[in-house]
Amino acid sequence: MKLKKRRKGQVSGWRVVRRCVVFFTAICVVPVLLVLIVATDNYMRPVHQRPYLHQQLNHKERVLFEPRLNHNMTAVAKRLEMRRKHLKRMCRILGLDRPGNDTLHRPNPWEFLVDNKHRLVWCNVFKAASTSWMYNFNILAGYSPRFLKKSKKVPMTLARQRYPRPSLQALKKAFNSSISFLIARHPLERLLSAYRDKLQYALPHTYHRKLGNEIIVKYRYKNKKKNASVQRWPTFPEFVEYLVDSVQNGDRLDMHWTPIVEFCTPCMFNFKVIAHTETLQEDQMYLIKKARLERLIKPEWKNPGRGTTANQLEKYYSQLTRSQILQLYHIYRYDFELFNYSIQGYLEVGIPDKDPSTLLAAITLKDFRQNELPKVY
Length: 377
What we know:
- The structure is a single chain.
- The chain is mostly helical.
- It has one domain.
- The protein is built from 16 helices and four strands.
- The protein has a four-stranded mixed beta sheet, sandwiched between helices.
- Helix 10 crosses helix 14.
């Protein structure tokens, strides 16, 4: 009996030892296995690349950046609402919201496109994504992308066949039941885009090539400037001289550089969406979703010009004197005010005027367009 008890005690002792070995082994080995499993899982799991946007991209590149699919449209809606309120407030302060008989106070329906079927109203501001939205309106009109690509007709001509110019009464009625919008662009960037597209790169035997030749005769050869340029198109300073003289003489401006305040008379209508080219991609997405047209059209940025205008601003505006830049500001002052743009960055690159009195005269210059109602300076 004693022998049996001794063996039983010995067995119990070995059992304890084994349990201890197993316990300590588990403590040492299991964490290592877990680490290996996690590491292996990380290597085997598909890599999800994060979208990356460099902080130094210019605004045109920001426009072309594809937003995430789950982008928060609420933030865009708030931004657009702030623009609407700013426009209304400035219209009231500048006295531009009161009907009158001049071009600043008379509603102008001439350049509106009204799509009653899709309940969409657009004021076509030339050189402000106009090519892109003319394409979209032609798609909504029933033209196929293939037809538009092959057609030799001007897109505007095709559009007007389906969207005739509305009467003021019909336009006001459409505003009450449609999503109305316009696209604004920095006035001086829009002006440069118009110059490059219509004068610097004007096609032979066109109206703008003829206009360019007239500008050269008047502002290059007639003034007998020393070291006159031999290029076949007007220089940017020559074009600006022509523009300033045209406004001072009360001449009718070309539609590609007419101020938006006269082109669309935004203070005379209640636009629901004020898009900007600087945030065009997001603004377009919001507009298309709001109009429930996602299945028909998509955000577009069709730029047929020679390169990005935003990258050329300093090159061209450094050719102007500061007084010339200030004169341009007074031509487009209402556009600056209504759409909350600034002249900052443009004056700094201008050539300092040799005669201080010239700069002073430009600073104290009143707007070229007469506004009989009170204004704030």
